[in-house]
Specification:
With about 425 residues, the protein is of the alpha+beta class. The chain folds into two domains: about 290 residues, Aminopeptidase; about 120 residues, Alpha-Beta Plaits, CATH 3.30.70. The chain is about 40% helix and about 25% strand. The chain has twelve helices and 18 strands. The strands form five sheets. It has an eight-stranded mixed sheet, sandwiched between helices. Strands 12-14-10-15 form a four-stranded antiparallel sheet, covered by helices on one side. Helix 1 runs antiparallel to helix 3, helix 6 runs antiparallel to helix 7 and helix 8 crosses helix 12. It is elongated. The termini are close together. About 50% of the residues are buried. The structure holds zinc ion.
Length: about 425
Amino acid sequence: MGRVSDIASGIAAVRSWQEDLYRDLHSHPELSHREQRTAGIVAHRLDAFGYDVHTGIGGTGVVGLLRNGDGPTVLLRADMDALPVREASGVPYASTVTTTNSAGQEVPVAHACGHDMHVTCLLGAAQLLADGADEWQGTLVTLFQPAEKTGDGARGMVDDSLRDVVPKPDVAFAQHVLPAPAGHVGTHAGPVLSAADSMRVTVYGRGGHGSMPQATIDPVLLASMIVVRLQGVVSREVAPTETAVLTVGSLHAGTKSNIIPESATLELNVRTYSEQTRSDVLDAIRRIVAAECAASGSPRDPEFELFDRFPLTDNDADTTARVAAAFADHFGDRAVPMGRQTASEDFSDVPTAFGTPYSYWGIGCTDPDLWQRAVAAGRVSQDFPVNHSPAFAPVIQPTCDAGTEALVVAALTWLARS
Ligand code: ZN
């Protein structure tokens, strides 16, 4: 990689507008599927950099294409949406935005997951690669997706016109800010983010008076037995070398202490790292629910509804090895291995739709000095607000520089002229 010094000098030219843009995006967050302002800024900048810009893909999705002769096609992706969280980070550019959500409720909005940083880094990389186009050849695709938080933004772009607009990429990349020292970039081959599935289960009993249980079928007891029995799925059915999480996050039944209700509803969340384990766990849930309903003499079949589903993020081993080597070359000891994360992402829906290998890495966003002091005091896990926390606030630098350079380095690993 002979372009490292070029990137290092070029980054100074984008840094000043990136920092202003980041603060602007941070104080103007938009909920999933409503990223109109952000998408407008993205499209305007890409156009100014000389990209062929396509807007309105899957709602507010934006694609910028830079065709630069024969060569590989590289796709770089950022997500744009924010969360219904009241920001309490204390930064001067903190969000005070509120909006009305789809249920008609007034909600606060904040970039509590750092997607504003992802947009800023990708726009910076887009300019650096456009300005340095004589250093590389091929096609660069920059993709800004809506609605990562709801798990359907990437799929929405695929189901719309994405594959008509974009040639099949040879490789695809995405990144996410994480609580780790800012300036660090972490890679991981293989499954890196879990698949996530939420399931709503409704079970039926026969309602009646609390003083006459013999005349009823109690769905509260039935649901309780299901909750207990489900604890055996991960501990007894998933191999000890595999990992899965099964949480019953919500359980609702009844209205009053002396009324046995007609039904109970459970909401479950499942996290897995392989498609096989994913289907095994979902099958086990259905089997246990059906068996407990039979055991209680339930008068009606249970109902299952899957929602908030995220695909597995499974980094291609060869691609990730190439990226990790390029990062080690560029970042030195700031290029680190990253463990599996239990979070989930819908990025992989894009490369999967094309049959393209991909790698997804993490970028640290915590003040490195604070991090060092916390490590010295043994308090890392308590000292830093994690993504989705109201107090989550990445330090702008060196987070922004590292995220921008990481995208450029990865892209040039495939595109640079030899
Ligand atoms: Zn996120």
